[in-house]
Design goal:
The chain is an all-alpha fold and 268 residues long. The protein has helices at residues 2-9, 16-39, 64-68, 71-85, 94-119, 123-148, 154-177, 184-203, 211-229, 231-238, 243-264. Helix 4 (71-85) packs antiparallel against helix 5, helix 8 (184-203) runs antiparallel to helix 9 and helix 9 runs antiparallel to helix 11. The longest helix is centred in the middle third of the chain and has 26 residues, at 94-119.
Amino acid sequence: MEFMKKIMQHDMQLPEDVMLKIKLVITLVSMASIAFIWSLPPMAQEIHYHLFADQRTFLGVSNFYNVFSNILFLLVGLMGLYEILHSKKIQLMNEQKTAGVLFFFAVAWVAIGSGYYHLWPDNSTLLWDRLPMTVAFMALFSIVLSEFVSTRFSKSSLILLVAFGVFSVVYWHITELNGAGDLRLYILVQFLPMVLIPLLLLLCCEKSVYLAGYWVLLFWYVVAKLCEYFDQAIFDLLGVISGHSLKHVAAALGVLFLLLAYRRKNPM
């Protein structure tokens, strides 16, 4: 109970020397990642990326299962918005509330953007698939940073992170239109938070009341990436559903478990 009171009063602080080490680790890992990504040559989007294993049409909808499986994002996104804004079952710290609303809004938006992309998969529609995913990544990263590092800069970090995420997608899209696509910034936006978040969970585990939720989310994220990579193999094995459709299911389940963690460990 005392732990919860400290969280709500924002006085749950790690020793200053520990915080300095954590910030140093974050800075070094970030700089190393940026240097590595930018040392690579520009990477255009491969055309075969759009050739998914399951291209079946059902009820007049092309790529039906890849389109329809996105409905889970809509459901869990709307559920999160409802529980933050209306039912108050989820009561994040004031500094995290804007990021939480934006996160669940972006998750719901993924259903529309990804569904649109899978109806007509190409680079132009892929833009609308990646924009909401990037906003969701950056909003979640902002929540984690505010919880583990500093609540003081949470709103400014949210604006900067989301702006950079959106810029990475727009930059890729413009370079593709100019015939020299460059995915490096977008790869950085996807890759870096997925490296820093586990580091923060390990270094600051005693500071979080949502620890299990974050780990379960990361687990399902890894499952989703594996399903995406083995899209054809899974479709050949199961016959009824492809790896990419299961990717949507796994990613949505990860968000659902995080939502349940937020609800169960509600500081109020």
